[in-house]
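User: I'm curious what two different proteins look like when written out as structure tokens. Can you demonstrate?

Assistant: Sure. I'll show them one after the other, since each token string lines up with its own sequence. Here's the first protein:
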Amino acid sequence: MKETRIIMGMPITIEIIDSSAPQSVFDEVFAYFTYVDETFSIFKSTSEITVINEGRLLPAQYSQDMQTVFQLCEETKKDTHGFFDIMTSRGIYDPSGVVKGWSIAHAADMLAKKGYDNFYVEAGGDIQVCRNDVSLPPWKAGIRNPFNIHENIAVLGLWHEAIATSGTYIRGQHIYNPFSPGDELQEIVSLSVIGKNIYDADRFATGAFAMQHDGIGFIEQLDDFEGYSIDACGIATKTSGFDQYITT
């Protein structure tokens, strides 16, 4: 069973390889994504993050999930040597670089706890998969050509991994370098990261993209992560273990 809904301003898709999966499972997971959107969207006037940015909520009054996300954002800032920072050039908090991967990971965990072991969850191109049935092929995920989004430049086979991509070819200049916030990021147009958990893959993809040419080297140095970057000239650079995931 497979279903897609537009939530958080993007298509979110859930597929479960189990004919007995009831509609209520999909409704529950999509309801969770709706809650995340209503809590963390900087574009919603009633969201908790908007109330925080307007100075109408003190840290001691933050919800538990908000406190958790702020803590994860601070950890990510340290892990990326300051290249991930939710304080934007506009002077507001925008935790979306952590929230998307964090929420996909939670949604996948919801499905796993219900006993499903062959599924994928995708939100805006970031994917967490689970495939325990070895009689089936791995899930396939494509890396888009940033110069022709209707074409894949690589197809990956994933069993229990996640992939996240940061770039400017669809959403424009929505990521910034905290050390030079006024400069557009033009050296790298796409950077994909594979990891065991979509939360980590997503946050590291965002931080690495802000590093531009240095980003793929940052991913290379991380344990259990692989990356693939494409620069403005169309030249691709991949980490040393990336090819193990390439399939046809």
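Here's a second, unrelated protein for contrast:
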Amino acid sequence: MKSKEGNNGMEADWTGGVAVVTGAGSGIGAGIARAAAAAGMIVVVTDLAIERAETVAGEINASGGSARAVKLDVTDEAAVRTLAEKLHEGHGGVRLLVNNAGIMNFGPSWEMGMAQWREVLDVNLIGVLHGISAFVPRMVERGRAGTRGAVVNVASLASISALPMSAAYVMSKHAVLALSECLSLELALEELPVDISVVLPGVVDTGIYDDSVMSRGKVDTGGRIRSLLQGMSTQYGMSPDEAGRIIFEKVQAREFWVATDPDLTRQTLTGRADFLLGQQPPQLPPAMVDSLRGIGTAG
């Protein structure tokens, strides 16, 4: 596993460090939690669904790792700050913060109620801000004392593209990417020993579609897009543990861009660059249109 020395000579040895992973009761979060535990970290598995978090933590402990489960609502600023304070008091702080918790939405923008918009944005964006605000100041202090830290923000290929019927999700992930870039520049400008990584997962077999926020209007295209994406995830998706291993290795190497499928990410970036430079109207790929029409007419 490759590592990179920090500007102050500190190596990326994570043994004994504390990792906090939000939304780690399933999917990519669980995969990252297992990878961190395998590297010798003490993992705090957080999730709003405490049963899921306990299952993942139990599996890590049973395999010889060290983990504890914590029920955490990332939209609750006070709860996130309380967790940060407890970990500072009990362990001296956190070495790795993974802002992974997220939810998707499906449905036309005009049929999404304001409560639904807020639910998605509060989890996907404000939850990340809560994590940064609560943990990064102390991570900076620990870094100055000799322990380099890292913040990992899980975005999406949607952060460099657009997806119809998922405007709230796409907006939030574009914002997470922009936030990660700004935060990285700020820390570098101040020469502070905290690294930032932004994750652009490829197709991963996760349960994110099961908990999607669905509009309740007259247009059913959002449901059809969810079915299409969920089917692709199940049929072609990488396992969460494999994704977690790849992500953790790239974070250890202090890489800003973290892709689980580099070819797909490069293809998406190229398409985005062509779209922006060409200043063309947004268009759906013909294959996606054909697939959606096929779903709509089947049965």
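A detail about the second structure: The first helix runs from residue 27 to 38.
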